[in-house]
Write a structure and sequence with these properties.
Largest sheet: none
Number of strands: 0
Distance between the termini: 66 Å
Radius of gyration: 26 Å
Structural class: mainly alpha
Number of helices: 21
Order of helices and strands: HHHHHHHHHHHHHHHHHHHHH
Strand content: under 5%
Helix content: over 70%
Length: 519
């Protein structure tokens, strides 16, 4: 018996096979495109972000830069698409010319909505940057529709919906199911906050994808929905679901990847099981290579955006304020971060054959609802009401651990004659490396569907390092807002570079026309 939501996924995958079209497409010069492509590679090193969000963020960055010179939607759409093709976010000679008008319509809608929202008193609703981000999500969604991915979300939702029943009945069932849907989307597709907002908006009305002529209606809906959506995202139940569901992501990803390659395998159990096993083995090998690449990327990110500026301050401070160069703190700051990152990455454990067997079992449960639940057998969880006094005491205890962790580290640095500047630099980079390293480890641990084993020593280490992880996370998501190198690239380098690229492309087109005239 085939689960209905899985059958829908298979049907969408079969219909998603693109047919060759004869309509005119956007074409750029390949030689010029190489320069733009490698520029994007360098640009993405200095602003660390997940790979699946690169195009969405590039769209926003391009729109933000080009809108300074022109706010005409059609002109912006044409420039945007050409730049995306040059940078290889879109394939050359594949994007239809009509896409320019379609993207122009989306931009017109969001620009008009921005003008309408300026009449609102709420400062958040007047924030043009947020609407530009939503427009970027809508354009990215239009350029590469995620129909099969969202069908996969629905498939996972149907499989794990019993999880909502395991939560205390004190929470309204509608709220529980809504939060489960949000958590499933976040686990499977890993959106940023703006993409998540966009997804929840478009669930209410398709106008957020393609635009709408009635701007006043859109303005009213946006004002009404904005606070509701943010409240849903911040709901505490969402975090509980996320902690449980992360372990069940891989079977759905494996099924989607295999069916995308050959949808007919859905009704062939043995060949499907074999392909799932092959996929898991290849995924582990790929993740090994990707882990090395991401480790290098993370290190270069910290080196270029943080450590360069840090050493530029540390050495002058030692020479001109302290009157001497302190070699030990300098070399510790230089060598310890990459050593820590290497240790965190090299000690990660990769999945075993037993884990692959468990994934195959999970895929069988996903496809056929008559298969007895084993992997997806959720036990009822009692949600005890938090005692206010205990909650307060636990907060005090956590603050104590935070002070103890940082206090011990600061004491060790003082013993090694770290100055205020070198000590501050060490603490910042230690927190950043801890967060990056644990994030890279988690990318491998998420390949494991088996419960992770723990012990007393690991639990104690988690308590000691947790404050550093929290600080590292805060620094990672807030320092880019004041990242000097990003500002220099966007304003002083990217704008003239892209102008030069366009002039060069026009020159090649001119030479081509001259050559054709001679024939």
């Amino acid at each position: 018996m085939l689960r209905e939501s899985v059958a829908d996924l298979s049907r969408i995958l079969k219909n998603s096979i693109r047919k060759q079209s004869d309509e005119p497409t956007i074409t750029v010069n390949d030689a010029v495109g190489v320069l733009a492509f490698y520029y994007e590679k360098i640009r993405n090193v200095i602003e660390y972000q997940d790979e699946h969000l690169l195009r969405q963020n590039a769209i926003r960055r391009i729109l933000s830069r080009r809108r300074i010179l022109s706010s005409d939607p059609k002109e912006l759409a044409e420039s945007l698409l050409s730049e995306l093709v040059r940078s290889r976010y879109l394939p050359n000679n594949s994007t239809p010319i009509r896409t320019i008008q379609e993207v122009s319509s989306i931009l017109s809608f969001y620009f008009n909505l921005e003008s309408a929202l300026k009449r609102e008193s709420d400062k958040k609703l007047r924030d043009g940057e947020m609407l530009l981000s939503l427009a970027s999500c809508a354009i990215d969604d239009h350029l590469s529709p995620m129909q099969s991915e969202e069908a996969l979300v629905m498939a996972m939702y149907r499989v794990v919906e019993s999880l909502a029943q395991s939560v205390s009945s004190a929470i309204d069932e509608t709220v529980r199911m809504h939060q489960l849907g949000i958590a499933v989307y976040r686990v499977l597709l890993r959106p940023d906050i703006m993409r998540l907002r966009y997804f929840l908006l478009k669930q209410t009305n398709s106008m957020w994808m393609v635009g709408a002529p009635d701007i006043e209606y859109a303005r009213g809906e946006f004002v009404r929905l904005f606070s509701q959506i943010d409240a849903s995202i911040r709901h505490p139940l969402n975090r509980k679901y996320l902690s449980v569901l992360r372990r069940y992501r891989l079977p759905f990803i494996a099924l989607h990847a295999v069916l995308k390659k050959n949808p007919e395998l859905l009704e062939q159990k043995d060949p499907l099981d074999k392909e799932i096993r092959v996929f898991c083995e290849k995924l582990v090998a790929t993740q090994r290579k990707r882990l090395r690449s991401r480790t290098l990327h993370a290190f270069l990110y910290i080196l270029l955006t943080k450590m360069t500026l840090g050493f530029a301050v540390e050495i002058p401070y030692d020479l001109y304020v302290l009157g001497e160069f302190r070699a030990i703190p300098f070399w510790i700051n230089a060598l310890f971060p990459p050593s820590l990152l290497a240790f965190l990455v090299l000690t990660v454990k990769y999945p075993t054959k037993e884990n692959t067997d468990r994934i195959i079992r999970a895929v069988n449960e996903i496809i056929d609802p008559t298969v007895p639940s084993d992997v997806f057998a959720f036990k009822a969880r009692s949600t005890r009401k938090k005692h206010p006094i205990l909650s307060f005491l636990f907060q005090i205890l956590y603050i104590t651990f935070l002070g103890l962790s940082f206090g011990l580290l600061i004491w060790a640095l003082a013993s090694l004659e770290f100055s205020l500047v070198s000590g501050f630099i060490f603490l910042v980079f230690f927190c950043l490396i801890m967060f990056f390293g644990m994030s890279l480890r988690r990318s491998i641990q998420e390949l494991t569907i088996l419960p992770l084993k723990t012990n007393f020593i690991l639990s104690f280490m988690d308590q000691f390092f947790l404050p550093f992880l929290h600080v590292g996370r805060w620094l990672t998501f807030n320092i880019p807002k004041i990242n000097v190198l990003v500002f220099l690239f966007d304003i002083l380098i990217e704008t003239p570079f892209q102008a030069l690229i366009e002039i060069t492309e026009e020159w090649f087109a001119f030479l081509k026309d001259k050559k054709e005239d001679m024939q």
